[in-house]
Amino acid sequence: MSVELVSIVVLVLVFLIASLRSINMGALAIVAAFAFGVGVVGKAADDIFAGFPGDLFVILVGVTFLFSIAKANGTVDWLVHAAVRASGGRLVAIPWALFLVSALFTAVGAVGPGVVAIVVPIAMGFARRYQINPVLMGMMVINGATAGGFSPISIFGGITNGVVARNHLDGSPITLFVASFVANLLLTTVAFFLFGGRKLLRERQTIVEAEPVGVSVEAGSGSVPGTGGARTASPLAPPAPSNGGPDETVTTLNLDRTLTLIGVAVLAVGALFFDLDVGVTALGVAVVLSLVSPSTTKNAVSGVAWSTVLLVCGIVTYVSLLEDMGTIDWLGNGVAAIGAPLLAALLICFIGGGVSAFASTTGILGALIPLAVPFLQHSDVGAVGLVTALALSSSIVDSSPFSTSGALTVAAAPEDQRDLVFRRLMAWGFSMIVIAPVCTWLVLVVVPEVL
Fold first, then answer.
1. What is the separation of C-alpha 250 from the centre of its chain, rounded to a whole number of angstroms?
2. Helix, strand, or coil here: 206?
3. What is the pLDDT of residues 336-346, one digit of tens each?
């Protein structure tokens, strides 16, 4: 067995062991990189360290630190409440409000599963109280989080665009973001009508009774807030403030929240129009907010998605070893040798969707895009289209109950409907393993080639 093939087997084992034993995949990948690189390939430790992605580390820490501050000072709760109130209390609009607010959170740098963990208990509270299909509410949150996940200042977007830039491929961050949002919006529209949206349209009910929305649920508890009652009273009541203040509510746009919203806007404008470094800019905004209001941000560092940082940086470190030892070129040339570039591109998308349904999407993006680089360099397939198709194929399947977002949704579902939610999400997620690669491949790879 060649050393290149052995290195791929080790990577597969990293994904498998981390999935089965609940070990952080990044930590395992770093250990594997040093064990294999030093012990088998004969690389020096400094060579392994050289593959650590410092740019991605800064992006991941910066954007999740900023989101942690937004959560701590009540900006997240304010945005959720504002989105629900903007729906005018119309029951049919609530799922779409949750879709948009989930997309907004991931678009500005929040980790997808973290957003689902915050928003899906709110969605399930509405589902139980107003007899809405919990599968519909869960799908709106998951797809919303995925829709915003590839913005230029998001986690997924940062990983994908960073890998593309490091490998000197043609890239289009805006195309990636727009394609992700449109694809998930279309899927959500299908899910809306498939899982009870017609009933909501017919009922045309409005929510006017006080309803707490700033709540949380522990994974696995199955409990969600909400009590019974009529549907004709006062507007939605605000939740308790995130920062623990006794007199403020999330309906108040105070100085901290206003500055946070301005900071996020500065980050978005700077990254999109002035080509500012996303990670450094996000850290700069977070530091300014910390200086202005240290009391509400002193614990925000603990809210940084350190497990995600370790996961992504570990996987990229191992993949950098594969690049250095020639495995990436070996595998890419093997795929290119299929002789049918379009078929090879479809195969890559199937691999991304199939593996991501059971493993971390962030890890898959960091591993599979580099594996496609040699193929892109030796074929006429457009890099922008294939990278976008691969990214969508790997993320749309996050509704699978075996992924983190899907599992959180099942855990937050009402106990008497949890089995139903699990079965529906499994059927939907597994169907996406086939549907997402085929559709994205046709639209983003085949059609541009034909035209």
1. 25
2. strand
3. 677 677 888 88
